[in-house]
UniProtKB/TrEMBL annotation:
Lineage: Bacteria, Bacillati, Actinomycetota, Actinomycetes, Micrococcales
InterPro entries assigned: GCL_type2/YbdK_subfam, GCS2, Gln_synth/guanido_kin_cat_dom, YbdK
Protein name listed in UniProt: Putative glutamate--cysteine ligase 2
An annotated Gene Ontology molecular function: ATP binding
Assigned keywords, A-Z: ATP-binding, Ligase, Nucleotide-binding
Enzyme Commission no: 6.3.2.2
Lineage top rank: taxon: Bacteria
One GO term of the biological process aspect: modified amino acid biosynthetic process
Family recorded in the similarity comment: Belongs to the glutamate--cysteine ligase type 2 family. YbdK subfamily.
């Protein structure tokens, strides 16, 4: 079975104001001293952010156990520093006219110089899923075939309805913020690995693309590992949410790698509009159906996704189905955050995040 890994970002907030606190370095320094997690905790673009990357796993149970323990370590260090972890694609509130502090690093400074005031809007956090591939050739085939499924994946992982204390009307406001950067969205279709490499290299130096690592496609080949990387999900409320999404990605990669015919292509302009549509509605409305190229109820699209991936899920088939069904039943993180705010204001929303933190 293919191995997978999860990289997740979180923003550390002031527990009272729920605004980002520019003190992640204190928490990171505390965690760097632990043998279990020190090497896997890193900075991110902003000084309020922290990132954790799991080991590669074949077992979903092992992945969930590691991520749960890592979250506990991060949360404990944050609470000891008087901070709270906020695992969503965007923080609930941000100072409207204050640029966030950068994390230390020359590369971050280069990017910040290029993006100007976009830095303020880039207070966003993601969950990235790496799935093992047999070769880069296989990765290109899978990437091409995965493109029509990206809106459904985005909707499943939507968890950022709020910005500056208000409901944005979008399930994934992080996705809308991210669209403003130079190279984002669905990748184009590629002829082969050589075509991919040439087109990737040609982007360096344009806009904010200081290196291939700053190409922000929603799915791409990893430059460091023998994996395909899904970069489409918001940071997730719970470790279970994150692992469920990772299992969907692994099953999708296996299904597309084993497919005897290519998935029908979707025109790039329609796919781009469908991603915007999915960012707005999440699972509450309609999504692009890859089989027809038209909008269909989210339930129907996810049923089609399950029909494709379950035969390739191996021993995880029940877990994959249960994870998707759970998201349909209790809602994405966006739906749960909105419900908490409606039920009890920011106090209830704070409790939702802190309950999931510990």
């Amino acid at each position: 079975m293919r191995k997978f890994g999860i990289e997740e970002e979180a923003v550390l907030v002031d527990p009272a104001s729920l605004r980002p606190a520019q003190d992640a370095n204190v928490v990171i320094a505390a965690l760097r001293g632990t043998p279990e997690f020190g090497e896997r905790v890193t900075t991110e673009f902003l000084n309020a952010q922290i990132e954790y990357a799991t080991e590669p796993h074949e077992s979903a149970t092992a992945a969930l156990e590691e991520l749960t323990l890592a979250r506990l370590a991060v949360d404990t260090a944050a609470f000891d520093a008087g901070l709270a972890p906020w695992r969503a694609g965007t923080p609930f509130d941000t100072p409207p006219l204050q640029q966030p502090q950068l994390a230390p690093g020359e590369r971050y400074e280069r990017v910040a110089d290029l993006v100007g005031w976009l830095r303020h809007g880039h207070q966003i956090n993601a969950t990235h899923v790496h799935v093992e591939i047999a070769s880069r050739d296989e990765g290109i085939r899978v990437m091409n075939a995965a493109r029509p499924w990206l809106p459904a994946l985005l909707a499943l992982g939507a968890n950022s309805p709020h910005w500056q204390g208000l409901d944005t009307g979008f399930a994934s406001w992080r996705s809308i913020h991210h669209r403003r950067w130079a190279t984002t969205g669905a990748p184009p279709e590629f002829v082969d690995v050589a075509d991919y490499d040439a087109r990737l290299a040609a982007l360096v130096g344009l806009g904010l693309t200081v290196d291939v690592g700053t190409v922000g496609w929603l799915v791409r080949l990893s430059e460091r590992y023998p994996t395909i990387e899904f970069r489409i999900f918001d940071a997730q409320l719970t470790a279970t949410d994150a692992v469920d999404l990772a299992l969907v990605c692994r099953s999708l990669v296996s299904a597309l790698a084993e497919a005897d015919r290519a998935t029908a292509s979707v025109p790039p302009e329609r796919l781009d509009a469908a991603l915007w549509h999915a960012a707005r509605d999440g699972l509450e409305g309609e999504l692009l159906h890859p089989a027809t190229g038209a909008l269909a109820p989210a339930r129907d699209v996810l049923d089609a996704l399950l029909a494709l991936i379950l035969p390739a899920s191996g021993g995880d088939a029940d877990a994959v189905r249960a994870g998707v069904e759970r998201m349909l039943r209790i809602g994405t993180g966006a739906r749960r955050q909105r419900a908490a705010l409606a039920e009890g204001g920011t106090a209830r929303l704070r409790r939702l995040h802190l309950a999931n933190a510990m």
